[in-house]
Amino acid sequence: MVLSIVERIKGFLFSPSATFDASREDTLGDAFKYFVIILAIYAVLIAIVVVAAFSLISGMLSMFGVPELPFGAARGLMAAVVFFVGALVGGIIGIFITGLWLHIWVYLVGGKNGVEQTIKAVMYGETPSLLLGWIPILNFIAGIWTLIVGIIGVRQLHGLSTGKAVLAVILAILIPAIVIGVIIAALGPTMPGPGYPGPLGPGFGGF
User: Fold this and answer.
1) Which residues of 112-131 are buried (b: 16+ CB within 10 A; e: fewer)?
2) For the chain, what is the domain count?
3) pLDDT at residue 58 is higher than 90
4) What confidence score (pLDDT) does residue 2 get?
5) Residue 66 falls inside a structural domain
6) pTM for this predicted structure
7) Cα–Cα dist 156/154, whole Å
8) What domain range is 115 assigned to?
C-alpha cells in the first residue's frame, strides 16, 4: 500500500506502529523524499520565524528611538536565508550521521535488517520535530514525541522487542553525552576561572 505524504504525516504522528509496518517495503529513496519535503517545510517555517523576530525587534527598537540599521529588513531576510539553507543542509547531513550512529547500537542489540531500515526509522521518526519543533515550548514536547516514534520505528522495522529498541536508542544518546561530559570535566580545571586576568590583562581570558 502506497501512502500519500499527508497519510504518512498523520500516521507517523498518531499511529506510528501501523504506519511503520505499512512502510516496511519503502526504499531509502522513498524515505529520503518524504524527509526532505517535511524538512523543507520546517526550514521555511524557521525562516518565517526569523523574519518575524527581526521585524519585532526592529519595531521595538524604533519605539525607543534606536536606529533601525542593526536590525533592518535586509539583515532579517539575509538571516532567514542563512537559517533556511542551514536547516536544509544540516538536516540532510545530520540525519545520515544520526542513522549510521544509531545503527551501531541497533545491530549490537540484535537488529539485523540492515542500516537502511535504521535510517528510515530516523527519517520517518523526525516527523513530530520537523512539523512542531519550530514552535517554542512545543519543541520540547515534539522532541520527546520524536524519540518515541523513532523507538517504535526501530522496533517495527527491525523486528525487535520494545526493550531492545529502547536500549539501542538510549545507548546512542547516552554514549556521546558521557564522552562530552568527560571532556568538559577534563578541560574544566585548565580553563581560567573568574578573576583570572588572562595573558593580555583584565578583560581578556577572564571575567
Assistant:
1) ebebbbbbbbbbbbbbbbbb
2) 1
3) no
4) 62
5) yes
6) 0.84
7) 6
8) 5-189
Interaxial angle between packed helices 28-63 and 115-125, expressed in degrees from 0 to 180 and rounded to the nearest 10 = 30
201, part of any domain: no
Residue 199 lies in a domain: no
Which pLDDT value is given to residue 4? 86
Query: Position 158: which residue type?
Result: H
Report the percent of the chain where pLDDT is more than 70: 82
- DSSP sequence for the chain: -PPPHHHHHHHHHH-HHHHHHHTTT--HHHHHHHHHHHHHHHHHHHHHHHHHHHHHHHHHHHHTT--SGGG-HHHHHHHHHHHHHHHHHHHHHHHHHHHHHHHHHHHHTT--S-HHHHHHHHHHHTHHHHHHTTSTTHHHHHHHHHHHHHHHHHHHHHT--HHHHHHHHHHHHHHHHHHHHHHHHHHGGGS--TT---TTSTTSS--
